[in-house]
Amino acid sequence: MPHAPTDITEDALHDLLAKMAVLVAQFDRHCAQSREALQTSARQIPEQLRASSDQQMARLHTALAAQVGNAIEAPVARCTQQLDASSAQLQRASDALAAQAQRAGGVHRSVLWTSTGVAGVALFAILIAGVASTRYYAGEVQRQRISADLLRAYNAADVRLCGERLCVRPETDADAHGGYVTAALR
Fold first, then answer.
1. Element (H, E) at 171
2. Torsion of the alpha carbons at 61, 66, 67 and 68, rounded to the nearest 10
3. Cβ distance 171 to 156 under 8 Å?
4. What is the pLDDT of residues 123-170, one digit of tens each?
5. CA distance 69 to 63
6. pLDDT computed for residue 23 by the predictor
7. Sheet harboring 165-168: ordered strands across?
8. How far apart are CA 170 and CA 158, in angstroms?
9. Pair 182, 176: CB distance under 8 Å
10. Among 85, 120, 129, 157, which residue's beta carbon has the most beta carbons within 10 A?
11. 55 vs 61: CA distance, rounded Å
């Protein structure tokens, strides 16, 4: 490979090196300044982010609290109105119940005296019915005693059917129906 002719002089080379040194120094200064600026920015960015996020969170908190407050305010007001209305209605019902209890006390005394009177009359009627039925059944018992005496005598006697009539065997001998006599009709 052939070499190109070089006609650079030593002064030009010195001059070129000096300019290059100045450029390198400027580059180093710019790099150092840029590094410092980047480091400063790197230190400030978290603080700026924190401050910005704190501001955004504060705004969000304020907006959210306002919206929640507005959303809750109307139902709470309705509940308060309903509770006030229910309380008034409960007071009216309580007053009505107290008045009805007073009226019921008067009615209760009246019913108590009436039921005591009815119970007394019923007991008197039961007593009269008991006396009447005792007399009736005493007469029935007397009649049944007579009938029972008659049946005992009939069972003790020697009686039998002779056709459609009764035949009795007397204590004395009678030979009409094998020792039996026809009973007389009433």
1. none
2. 80
3. no
4. 999 999 999 999 999 888 988 888 888 888 878 888 888 888 888 878
5. 10
6. 93
7. 159-162, 165-168, 181-182
8. 8
9. yes
10. 157
11. 10
